[in-house]
Amino acid sequence: MGIIYSQSITEFCLEGRFIDFVIKDGYKLKGLNLETSEGECYVKLAKPLRAAFDWRLPKGTWLQVVGTKKYDEKKREFTLKAERVMAASADLGRVALQEPPADTAAKVKSAKTKQTILMCQKSDCWKRGGKAVCQAFEAALSDRGLEDQVTIKGTGCMKNCKAGPNLVMPDKTRYNRIQPYEVASVMDKHFAPQPEDKQTESSELLPINISNFNKVSAKFSAI
């Protein structure tokens, strides 16, 4: 008779600093890497969270994660699954009032503004004009002076080959059958100048903008 292994599930609540997203197939959000008091850990996101998660979350943000912890006796390891993710309220006021050292100010600002356009570069999309669309986006970024704020990243198949070219904007809006002449209007829609871009230099140097923090907290807590 074979050995029967069991799995136990308990609830957990932890706080950690956001390191990066964990992506599958080049564009599918699966989870988060966090730096906690016990070291780096991976937290898988529940499906409802993946669909609503804001990809603009700044690296280094302190988060509070609530979910379930499963122990696999056979593998002798824990799996963490997040059901709720929020800005860590206990740290919010303290962090927002601190200014970073001068040598890290540029890095903080870059982490908050860097965005990524995901573009399928498989053969079907490429044959349907994907290369021309990619070149149009590169030209549009250059014309608008956004090369240091927005990048274009090629991905694997997005499972919508017949509707190519396919791409995903930083806010997760998907476009298919897009043509080069449509790129300018798409750029204007997603990268129009925002009022907050005119903030004073001192407010830009804050490691975490409190208004953005509140937006992130509200979005993450709505599950």
Overview of the molecule:
The chain is elongated, with a radius of gyration of 20 Å. Strands 1-2-3-5-4 form a five-stranded mixed β-barrel. A four-stranded mixed sheet has the order 7-6-8-9, covered by helices on one side. By secondary structure, the protein is α+β, with helices and mostly antiparallel strands. 32% of the residues lie in helices and 33% in strands. The N and C termini lie far apart (44 Å). The chain has helices at 47-52, 89-96, 102-113, 123-143, 183-190, 201-204, 210-221, and strands at residues 7-24, 28-36, 39-45, 62-72, 77-87, 115-120, 150-155, 166-168, 174-176.
Throw out a few tags for this protein.
223 residues, alpha+beta, five-stranded mixed barrel, four-stranded mixed sheet, 7 helices, 33% strand
